[in-house]
Design brief:
This protein is low in regular secondary structure. It has one domain (1-90). It is built from one helix and no strands. The protein has one helix at residues 76-87. The termini are far apart.
Length: 90
């Protein structure tokens, strides 16, 4: 499992509302750490029965929370630059 904010290693779930990343102290029971989090979706959540959460990085009490463990997200621009740079490495 990896933190969505810093990419650091996380302890095994379950995560509760006040649990934090040991590296960056980001809340672990937060939308950005959830499997259902999707920036491009309505309410930024793929679970249509979940209540709306305004601050996606703060701990919450959502009953639908499932840890994703994807780690820190890279932007499309960063991913494209990394792919381009890898083409011309010697």
């Amino acid at each position: 499992m990896k933190c969505a904010k810093c990419g650091g290693e996380l302890p095994s779930p379950p995560y509760f509302r006040n649990d934090e990343c040991p590296s960056c102290r980001a809340d672990l029971h937060a939308c950005v750490q959830c499997l259902f989090y999707s920036a491009g979706s309505y309410n930024q959540c793929l679970e249509n029965q979940a209540e709306r959460v305004t601050d996606k990085e703060k701990g919450n009490l959502c009953d639908w929370f499932k840890p994703s463990g994807k780690g820190a997200a890279t932007s499309g621009k960063d991913a494209a630059k990394a792919a381009f740079d890898s083409l011309f490495k010697k």
